[in-house]
């Protein structure tokens, strides 16, 4: 049988694309050697958020007296928390499996290699061969392990990535996090909540990389109050046993020890072992001439007709929701529907407690691009619902406009992850400040802060 579409990888790009294509009547085969859902569902987004919600519940229990509720002897059962994480993941993986079955997608539990192309593409998966008229590459990404002396040698022992840390049998008393990005801060948040002493070592002068500077600084200050230690602008030079050796901006060599050392300095596209070279798929190169992803256009097409790529393998916007939308664009293009990928309103969320969310330009990005912006901002306490539900909670809502059009929205405070989608619509559709002022927001909700900030 020759399939209309062969998809390599069952993560957010792959399974969403498979479902859309199957529902549209295309014959689809999906190759995934591990579990459906990819890194996001099995080793990233979902398991971490499950852990973080348990931590948030524990935080509420410990501080319930602020709300007039007594929870004596509140305790966290780490083993039970991790078991619940496994249950949630298993349930959702099963849900994806049902989606594939309902869309008549053939799922093959093997990795596939593209072996050639003539009138159709040929693929090898295990002992079987397959043919397809179109290919969508969604092989995702893997954790970066930089060439720091002693780091790779410690992997699987004291040193862990996001994968291994999700399978810990017990709570570490001390955790050193190398990298203060989104993944690093989410794990720092979880382990800090359950009583681990957490130290974050970050090479940049701020946490959360490209996210809004002011909000990043506010989150750092809140976690410093909770006991997390931050060493910014510090370069890790070695890992010796259970110690991280780093150099401060002043040149001082320091050490910090941990029962576990989490390496969290980014991810890179999985490009090898797929057979891209067998059909001449072009890779995107960084300024140093090294490949970082598959080169695609706005329709997710590669340079090879009939071959598409979506998700982290493009090396561009490594987020699950970006991947899903890219997969949709690829399928629509195959179906002959006009569609194009836009990245101007891709939201970013950090599920710490409090949460951080942002979409569009930050002030520093606007300045780098020479775009003049007006900044409107209000403390989250201007929302009555926020005050009612966040005793002594601090937060901020910031809206950036350029020539009267909303170009960026950034928030700190719960539950901004559920509010930011309104800002995504505003930016994606190019709504003006005045048009948004006329929108009626439900009262009392924390989302009202978005509208109130427009008047600031």
Describe it.
The protein is an alpha/beta fold. Strands 1, 2, 3, 4, 5, 6 and 19 form a seven-stranded mixed β-sheet that branches. It has a five-stranded parallel β-sheet with strand order 8-15-9-10-11. Strands 20-21-24-23-22 form a five-stranded antiparallel β-sheet, sandwiched between helices. Helix 1 runs parallel beside helix 10. It is globular and about 65 Å long. The chain starts with a strand and ends with a helix. The mean pLDDT is 96.
Quick structural overview:
This protein is of the alpha/beta class. The protein contains 15 helices and 24 strands.
Mean pLDDT: 96
| Main beta sheet strand tally, sense and closure | 7 strands, mixed
Binned, the helix content reads 25-40%
Number of helices: 15
What is the number of beta strands? Answer: 24
Ends: how far apart? 62 Å
Shape assignment:
globular
Fold topology:
Layout lengths: L1 E7 L3 H12 L4 E4 L6 H6 L1 H18 L15 H25 L2 E4 L4 E5 L3 E5 L2 E10 L3 E3 L7 H4 L4 E2 L1 H4 L8 E5 L3 H12 L3 E5 L11 H13 L3 E3 L3 E6 L2 E5 L5 E5 L2 E4 L3 E3 L6 H4 L3 E3 L5 E4 L12 E3 L10 H15 L13 E3 L5 E5 L2 H6 L5 E6 L4 H6 L6 E7 L2 E8 L3 H13 L4 H5 L10 H7 L2
Parallel strand pairs: 1-2, 1-6, 2-3, 6-19, 8-15, 9-10, 9-15, 10-11
Antiparallel strand pairs: 4-5, 5-6, 7-16, 12-13, 13-14, 17-18, 20-21, 21-24, 22-23, 23-24
Helix pairs in contact: 1-4, 1-10, 3-4, 3-7
């Amino acid at each position: 049988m020759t399939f209309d579409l062969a998809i390599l990888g069952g993560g957010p790009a792959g399974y969403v694309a498979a479902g859309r294509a199957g529902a549209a009547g295309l014959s689809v085969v999906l190759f995934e050697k591990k579990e459906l859902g990819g890194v996001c569902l099995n080793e990233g987004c979902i398991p971490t958020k499950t852990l973080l919600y348990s931590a948030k519940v524990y935080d509420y229990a410990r501080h319930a007296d602020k709300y007039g509720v007594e929870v004596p002897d509140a305790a966290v059962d780490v083993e039970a928390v991790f078991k619940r994480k496994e249950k949630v993941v298993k349930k959702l993986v099963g849900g994806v499996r049902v989606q594939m079955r309902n869309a008549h997608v053939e799922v093959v539990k093997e990795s596939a290699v593209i072996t050639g192309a003539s009138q159709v593409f040929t693929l090898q998966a295990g002992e079987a061969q397959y043919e397809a008229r179109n290919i969508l590459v969604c092989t995702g990404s893997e954790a970066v392990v930089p060439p720091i002396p002693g780091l790779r040698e410690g992997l699987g022992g004291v040193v862990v990535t996001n994968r291994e840390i999700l399978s810990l049998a017990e709570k570490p008393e001390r955790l050193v996090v190398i990298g203060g990005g989104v993944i690093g801060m989410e794990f720092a948040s979880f382990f800090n909540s359950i009583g681990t002493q957490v130290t974050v070592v970050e090479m940049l002068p701020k946490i959360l990389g490209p996210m809004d500077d002011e909000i990043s600084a506010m989150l750092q200050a809140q976690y410093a109050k909770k006991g997390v230690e931050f060493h910014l602008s510090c370069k890790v030079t070695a890992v010796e046993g259970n110690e991280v050796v780093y150099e401060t901006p002043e040149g001082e060599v320091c050490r910090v020890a941990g029962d576990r050392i989490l390496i969290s300095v980014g991810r890179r596209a999985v490009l090898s072992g797929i057979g891209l070279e067998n059909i001449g798929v072009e890779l995107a190169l960084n300024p140093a001439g090294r490949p970082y992803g598959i080169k695609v256009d706005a329709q997710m097409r590669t340079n090879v007709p009939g071959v598409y790529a979506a998700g982290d393998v493009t090396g561009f916007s490594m987020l699950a929701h970006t991947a899903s939308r890219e997969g949709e664009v690829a399928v629509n293009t195959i179906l002959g529907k006009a569609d194009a990928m836009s990245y101007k309103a891709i939201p970013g969320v950090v599920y710490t407690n409090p949460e951080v969310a942002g979409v569009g330009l930050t002030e520093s990005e606007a300045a780098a691009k020479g775009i003049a912006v007006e900044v409107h901002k209000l403390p989250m306490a201007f929302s009555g619902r926020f005050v009612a539900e966040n005793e002594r909670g601090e937060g901020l809502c910031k809206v950036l406009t350029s020539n009267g059009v909303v170009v960026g929205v950034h928030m700190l405070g719960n539950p901004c992850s559920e509010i930011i989608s309104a800002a995504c619509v505003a930016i994606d559709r190019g709504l003006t400040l005045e048009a948004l002022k006329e929108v009626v927001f439900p009262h009392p909700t924390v989302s009202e802060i978005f509208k109130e900030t427009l008047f600031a």
